[in-house]
Amino acid sequence: MLPARRISHCTSRKIYIMHNRKYLLPNIIELNLQAGKPLGVNIYLIDGGTEYLLVDIGLDDTLNEVIDLIREMDFPLSKCKHIVATHADADHVQALAAARDRLRTKTAAHKNAARAIESGDLVETYASISAQNFHIPMPQCKIDVKLKEGDVIKLGKLKVDVWHTPGHTPGQICLKVGNILFSGDNIYKDGCVGVIDAHHGSDIPDFIESLVRIRDDAEIEFLLPSHGPAFRKDHAILQKAIDRLMQYQYMADFGTCAVSWPLQEEWEREILGGQMPQL
Question: Which band of pLDDT confidence, cut at 50, 70 and 90, is reported for residue 253?
Answer without folding.
Answer: very high
